[in-house]
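Task: sequence design from structure.
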């Protein structure tokens, strides 16, 4: 009997030890993902980057059904690989009608039964970011975002978005980018990008994209999926079969700031609700990382070497019939308002930081203290320890969130 009791105690201890090791392993894996930047790639499942040369779309499986229609009148679904063999056909991959469709979507001209739902609205002293989404009748979720960068010019932001060599230095989601073909007659560029998806197979994008310049240094880009004979399907990647993206970069009226508005659709084979939740939770950290890289890029912008032949060096002029559309910031007062709020919020936060310690510091202290107490009680059940840590985490996160909301509402 005693031996049996002893055996039962050892068995219970062994189970507890196994659970503890499992919990520690999960925590270590999550920390590894966070520290290596892979976490952002799961959150930022499209980009964004998005929409620029570091992204590419992919060829659908020939046996699969044709991709759903693109946003609005974004015509010419996936371009067949045979057309890529003939350079003259490359010029038809992206047309001026695609540009018009991008402009219509950026101006929020929705199709029937479409409705925007807010996803995130965050800001600091140098950056404002807002995003919303809608579910088209056919096709994946459509995202519309506006990012305002203080102390930045439209030209610098444009080149930053299109500089894939520099992107490799700061964007840990980017595994590889290569150019396949450029049509010098109209500036259409074709290439491939491979991106990390933590715990999932990397995604491969084969894209065609084109850039335009309008009045007052307003820039546009349109990207969409295509096929190319230089990019056969490989089993080690998941080829993204549907991709549509476009952006507009312009100066914020009356301020030393510029904004990028982006509309984006892609089907990377992820669960819609999970992808939406991951985006909402992680995109802000990704955008902050992007802003940090942009500041470094601006410092040596005028010292960069001459770029090769690509969509930027072959930038096209916006057709007159589309360039007459009045899209100044005066028509979008929310842009100037949001930009002004950035500085106001930053000043208020700086003042409050001088008056009291940050909520984040307090939260981390509480979690640490709670963890020490739990771990110091050897008789405590592992489940109770995990539950207490989870509750402490939730309470402190909720308090920090409420504080941030109050700060954002300061007049």
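Answer:
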């Amino acid at each position: 009997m005693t031996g049996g009791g002893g055996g039962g105690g050892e068995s219970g201890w062994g189970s507890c030890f196994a659970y503890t090791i499992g919990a520690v392993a999960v925590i270590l894996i999550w920390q590894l993902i966070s520290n290596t930047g892979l976490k952002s790639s799961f959150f930022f499942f499209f980009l964004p980057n998005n929409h620029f040369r570091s992204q590419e779309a992919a060829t659908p499986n020939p046996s699969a059904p044709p991709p759903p229609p693109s946003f609005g009148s974004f015509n010419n679904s996936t371009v067949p690989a045979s057309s890529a063999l003939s350079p003259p056909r490359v010029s038809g991959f992206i047309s001026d009608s695609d540009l018009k469709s991008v402009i219509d979507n950026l101006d929020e001209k929705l199709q029937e039964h479409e409705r925007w739902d807010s996803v995130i609205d965050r800001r600091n002293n140098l950056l404002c970011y807002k995003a919303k989404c809608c579910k088209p009748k056919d096709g994946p979720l459509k995202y519309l975002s506006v990012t305002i960068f203080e102390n930045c010019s439209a030209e610098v932001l444009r080149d930053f978005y299109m500089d894939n060599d520099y992107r490799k230095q700061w964007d840990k989601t980017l595994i590889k980018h290569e150019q396949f073909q450029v049509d010098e007659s109209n500036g259409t560029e074709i290439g491939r990008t491979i991106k990390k998806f933590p715990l999932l197979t990397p995604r491969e994008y084969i894209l065609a994209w084109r850039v335009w310049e309008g009045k007052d240094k307003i820039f546009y880009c349109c990207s969409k999926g295509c096929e190319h004979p230089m990019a056969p399907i490989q089993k080690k990647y998941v080829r993204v079969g549907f991709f549509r993206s476009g952006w507009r970069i312009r100066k914020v009226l009356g301020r030393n700031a510029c904004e990028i508005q982006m509309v984006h659709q892609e089907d990377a084979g992820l669960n819609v609700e999970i992808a939406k939740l991951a985006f909402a939770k992680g995109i802000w950290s990704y955008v902050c990382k992007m802003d940090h890289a942009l500041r470094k890029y601006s410092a040596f912008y005028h010292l960069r070497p001459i770029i090769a032949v690509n969509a930027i060096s072959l930038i096209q002029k916006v057709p007159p019939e589309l360039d007459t559309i009045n899209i100044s910031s005066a028509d979008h007062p929310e842009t100037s308002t949001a930009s002004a709020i950035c500085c106001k919020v930053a000043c208020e936060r700086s003042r409050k930081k001088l008056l009291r310690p940050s909520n984040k510091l307090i939260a981390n202290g509480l979690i640490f203290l709670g963890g020490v107490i739990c771990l110091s009680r050897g008789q405590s059940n592992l489940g109770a320890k995990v539950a207490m840590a989870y509750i402490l985490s939730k309470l402190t996160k909720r308090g920090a969130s409420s504080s941030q909301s109050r700060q954002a509402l300061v007049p």
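The chain has twelve helices and eleven strands.
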